[in-house]
Amino acid sequence: MAETPRRAQYGAQAHVDEVGKLPTPFPRAVGPNALKYLQEVVDSGLTVDMIGRFERAFAEASGVAHCIATPGCTPALAVLAAAFDFEPGDEILVSPITDYGTIQGLCREGYIPVFPDTDPGTVNMSAATIEPCITDRTRAILCVHKTGIICDMDPIVQLACAHDLIVYEDACQAVFGKYKGRLAGTLGLAGGFSFDAEKTMGSDVGGCVITDDDELAERLRFIGQSRGAVMDPGFGRRHTVAGYAFRMPHCTAAICLAQLEVIDEQVAQRDRMIRLLSDLIGEVPSVSPLPIPDYMDVYSAWMFGMSIDPDAFACSAADFAAQLADAGIPGAGLGEYYLMPEACDFLKDAAAERRYPYCNPPASRDYAYGADSCPTARDFLRTWIRWSSFCEKYEPEHCELAASIVSQVADANRR
Ligand SMILES: Cc1ncc(COP(=O)(O)O)c(C=O)c1O
Which atom of ligand 1 is nearest to the CA of 77? Predict the structure, then answer.
């Protein structure tokens, strides 16, 4: 009998095998008021408005008018996709190096994800890589701030304005990161966040959308939380659109609220430690940490990543990463699976077979996915090693230890 493929794991389960000499995110440090807020939920007999309290607190901390809480970022971006109400076959330009959660909702709406390539040497797309992908079917640009490095948003927003496109952000990996003094998630029309257990504000599962746009916020609540239903006196709920039941649970909101109270210091620690770690590892010949752009005031780093020069080492990048993991860096590995045009077999198949929405109409041209559709991102990821366990528990001695492990593995494999 054919072997059943192992299902992917998420949250703490995905990290159980990660052991080594450096801190790991799990067990998570949870804000001191978590139990108090959870107790309130229970003591109130589930009547306390913990979701509203979290939404107001997160909106205030982000300096925006609205926060709409969801059970995760995947649903947050799905509700946004539904709220935009584009036509099936319309195109959304979206970062190619990301998580499936970025694109799930727009695929479900029948929109077509188009992946501009990344800028050379980075994990993000830019105005220069986006511009050639704009067509008369493009409706929006969805920017992902991979690892916590914020895309250079000003030129992207400028480009979008010139073509009358919406810009919005998947800020899952950049919570409270700052670009030129402004917070990630506030740089476009709306921003989506994840409070998944392993994320920077890890809380359980959870997420939200933030926006200053009153009309969009109302639509997000209607479609995302009210199942697209209005109250018809004498009848009851009438579903005027196919909405979702994407409400954040009150207990999750209680943990999110407690995490929000301690996030500033945690983000500051991540920023300090990622800069120190990058400086130290940058001293190892033929190893290049991700460049931190000058416009990043706060690098709320969720992940550390570095490129190795393949000509300098006798081993492959995968071997190099395995040796780092063996030497004590938990979670060290390649991230080739982040390349969505390659990882999403269902997209490749649908486009190749011209299945809906890749048939004409609603599509107005042919599409092809796969790694070769984004050659810069493809080549970059082949020699990019990251560790998924970078977290706020790092202290300077951990950065020094990590750098010395990288240096030893590099020296042992140098040609
Ligand atoms: C960039 C990005 N977008 C979306 C998601 C999905 O978030 P959630 O797990 O909260 O649905 C993740 C989670 O890994 C992510 O990293």
Answer: 4
